[in-house]
Amino acid sequence: MPVINIALDDLNRMLKDKLSAADFASIIPKIGADPDEINDSEAIVEFFPDRPDLLSTEGVARALRAFTEQNLGLIEYEVSPPTTQIFVSQEVMEIRPSISGGIVRGVTLDDISIRCIMELQEKLHVTLGRKRKKVSIGIHDLSKLEGPFNYDTCSPHEPAFVPLQKDYEMTPQEILEEHPKGIEYAHLLSEFNRYPIIKDSNDEVASMPPIINGALTTITEDTTDILIDVTGLDDNAVESCVNIVAAALVERGGEIEQLEIKFPSENKIVPSMEPKVHEIENDYLIKLLGFDPGQFVIFKAFRKCGMEPELKGDKWSVKVPAYRADILHPIDLLEEVSIGIGYDEFPESLPTETLFGKSLKSRKLESNCREIMLGLGFQEVVTLTLTSKKMLHEYTQRENDNETEVANPVTEDYHLLRSSILPNLLELLKNNKHRELPQQVFEIGQIVKMHTNVHSLAWMQIASKNTFSQARTISDSISLRLQISGETKECEDPLFIPGRCIETRSGSILLKYGEIHPFTLEKFELGYPVIGGEIHW
């Protein structure tokens, strides 16, 4: 979970009634945080990732004002109409199509507040931004730029500009290859031969999203007017980040001014700080709370969470501030009411019914399979669900079976969800070649076929002597205990030796067993015969 550092003196500058370290320590867990360390001057706090609006001192101060009843209810943000524009080219829409932003004027900054804003920017990159892939944020000193602005593409070789953390010009390609941030995030642009860039009317570079900002627009203590640009791949995430950053800068004395975004096919005025309205049935709310606290208590609970409720008939209509990106469903409103009331205030009661859990049918079958295999002398193992094409196809000669691929794999060895457990067991036998023979292993787990989870039991035996008859004996024992009866026939599976592979179907259950092919044994570096089988249900 995200961790932020809060200077208590800085926090108290944004509160009407100052909080001591002890008061802060007692209140902060009640709004959804886990304090790691709190002393007289500083607090290190871990927040739940579903509250990106709390990932800064400004957001925490705003939440505490409402929760401690210093400023109950919804904050109404005054927004000035746009005085400049951002022009968006068609070319950049093919690379990073979402863009939003805003201007905040009259901000008062010092070293601590600048660090808070930068920390918020990086925490949003990691959480909502999915490490800048989904969203990236630029925060600029507006006095160094002149509108209108252009969001366009550039070649790898120009324009050259001075990026943050450097004091000399670099081309976009040099930034990706030599700058620490460029090296870290170059993969986000690896498939493109042109890169996004934001420039002002004088062709000064403000940002090369999602990689880095220009050094020209670095925020300093002298900065009073700030330009926010947020680009990405998801409109909702981009909008949420703009609102969170703009609301944080308002806490530093700023006033929001909108921008006009001129897309090739439409124009947008951003940001919109208008609250969103969510609804929840009063009966539903009381039922899930487990008690009826009364309408006034519910009304006040919403306001302690910075919202403005209104009971219309039997339904609560709740205005939610624009910076609250986590409110998506009535159940989220229930959580806010619970926080506002305080979980310690919930009445204690004993359960009115005695219930006993029951195993799922699939779990009963798993337990039965485990008992059978252990009775046959096999040892249970657990292997990874993720695997690779090399394991599933190259080493087994099996054809691609429409496996489910991982979108962003960490390594090429783990980029598929397995469609069979047998290759995993062969890999395990390979890693245990130094152990004495025979080795008998089995695994009960899930595989994915046609993008659907399927239960599976797989077993494998390696010994100095192994025959098809032994494989059949083991399979017949399993079939007898599991009452698998159906048409048995020879089948073709490149994992097994031709003519030594049998398949039995019984309703939705498929049993297959045989002798492993020498090609596969060679690939897995196994020098002894192996028999095995697998059941899917």
UniProtKB/TrEMBL annotation:
Q: Where is the B5 domain?
A: 273-348
GO BP, sorted A to Z = phenylalanyl-tRNA aminoacylation
* InterPro entries tied to this protein: aa-tRNA-synth_II/BPL/LPL, B3/B4_tRNA-bd, DNA-bd_dom_put_sf, Phe-tRNA-ligase_IIc_bsu, Phe-tRNA-synth_IIc_bsu_arc_euk, Phe-tRNA_synthase-like_B3/B4, PheRS_beta_core, tRNA_synthase_B5-dom
List the cofactors: Mg(2+)
| DNA-binding is among the record's keywords | no
Q: Where in the cell is it found?
A: Cytoplasm
Listed GO CC annotations: phenylalanine-tRNA ligase complex
Report whether Protein biosynthesis shows up as a keyword of the record.
Answer: yes
Recorded superkingdom: Archaea
Q: Name one GO molecular function term.
A: magnesium ion binding
Keywords from the named record: Aminoacyl-tRNA synthetase, ATP-binding, Cytoplasm, Ligase, Magnesium, Metal-binding, Nucleotide-binding, Protein biosynthesis
Q: What is its main location?
A: cytoplasm
UniProt xrefs under SMART domains: B3_4, B5
User: EC number(s) of the enzyme?
Assistant: 6.1.1.20
Name the family the entry cites.
Belongs to the phenylalanyl-tRNA synthetase beta subunit family. Type 2 subfamily.
PANTHER family, from UniProt? PHENYLALANINE--TRNA LIGASE BETA SUBUNIT (PTHR10947:SF0), PHENYLALANYL-TRNA SYNTHETASE BETA CHAIN AND LEUCINE-RICH REPEAT-CONTAINING PROTEIN 47 (PTHR10947)
Q: What is this protein called?
A: phenylalanine--tRNA ligase
* Organism of derivation: Marine Group III euryarchaeote CG-Epi1
